[in-house]
Amino acid sequence: MKFTTESDIGRKRMVNEDRVAFLEHPDRFKLAILADGMGGHNAGDVASEMAIEEMKSNFLNMDIKNLETKETQRQWMLEAIQSVNEKIYNHSLSHESCKGMGTTLIAMLIDDSDCLIGHVGDSRVYYFTSDTVTLITRDHSYVNFLVEYGEISEEEAAHHPQKNFIVKSLGTESTIEPDFYELVLEPETNVLICSDGLSNKLSTDEMAAILTLPLSIDEKGKKLVQLANDSGGEDNISVILLSNDEEV
């Protein structure tokens, strides 16, 4: 498996509130993490930085003997995310400048080709095969809630004035219940983890077109960010790209 990470401030923002990381545990597992500090809130960059650093600490200090089954892996992920949420929430209460801060979170635990995804917010995970694109995660957003209940169409959601209103985020409440997804990485596939600075600007067809170019995985990551910037770059743009294609 090959990977690349990118995080760009974009063309309109003064601060990059996104954070990304890809970690490899000495004993087997890998962990991809993306956090998008909540725009419009105080210290979104503090929240996303805390999320990444706390998840890193949890991952690197874990005992892999406790992760031998999918059930124990899920339990570790749940406890790690809940611990991070508590620390961000308590920090916001004790620091006036950080009051109300929050962040999205994608954490993907990789065990060979098996992936467990913990998700909070509206950052996304896409899975690309040679001929299909699947959005793995479901946005924790007001607009997605309306779509799921049939109040508006997906086309209407794309231009809804409240499309960026998140209904669940890390650190804004004392407790959190993340969503979980499982994914098996087949040969010749790609996984794209991204903040909404990318997914709001690129269609899945545009993403897929870049992933099929004869470029290195690092070049593909930079190309995705470049296209989002070329399309306006109003938000921070972050990407973790994983490839199971040996030819990349």
From TrEMBL:
The keyword Manganese appears for this protein: yes
Name of the protein in question: protein-serine/threonine phosphatase
Record NCBIfam families: Stp1_PP2C_phos (NF033484)
Cofactors named for this entry: Mn(2+)
Species: Ureibacillus sinduriensis BLB-1 = JCM 15800
GO function term, MF aspect, one: protein serine/threonine phosphatase activity
Reaction catalyzed: O-phospho-L-seryl-[protein] + H2O = L-seryl-[protein] + phosphate; O-phospho-L-threonyl-[protein] + H2O = L-threonyl-[protein] + phosphate
PROSITE patterns from the UniProt entry: PPM_2 (PS51746)
Pfam families on file: PP2C_2
InterPro entries, per database record: PP2C, PPM-type-like_dom_sf, PPM-type_phosphatase-like_dom
EC number from the UniProt entry: 3.1.3.16
Domain PPM-type phosphatase: 2-244
Domain of life: Bacteria
Listed PANTHER family: PROTEIN PHOSPHATASE
Keywords: Hydrolase, Manganese, Metal-binding, Protein phosphatase
